[in-house]
Write a structure and sequence with these properties.
Elements lengths: L4 H7 L4 H27 L3 H18 L5
Helix pairs in contact: 2-3
Length: about 70
C-alpha cells in the first residue's frame, strides 16, 4: 500500500503526528470496512454496500491510494 504522505501532510496542516494517527486509524479500520462490504454483498444489501464502498473510496482518496 503506497500511501501518499505528502498529500496527507498538505491536508492535515503539515502535522506529522496527525498524519501518523490518520494512517494508523485507516490501517486499523480497513479490515472492518472490507468485511462490511463483503457482508453487504452477500446479503444483497445494496444500500449498505454502497455506503461502505463510498466510505472506503473516500478514505483511500485521502491516502492517495488511487490503485485501491
Amino acid at each position: 500500500m503506497n500511501i501518499n504522505r505528502e498529500r496527507l501532510l498538505a491536508l492535515l496542516g503539515n502535522d506529522e503526528a496527525r498524519v501518523d494517527r490518520f494512517v494508523a486509524n485507516f490501517k486499523a479500520s480497513l479490515p472492518n470496512m472490507v468485511q462490511t462490504i463483503r457482508e453487504s454483498f452477500a446479503k444483497e444489501d445494496w444500500e449498505s454496500a454502497s455506503i461502505a464502498c463510498h466510505d472506503l473510496k473516500n478514505q483511500a482518496n485521502y491516502m492517495g491510494l488511487e490503485e485501491l
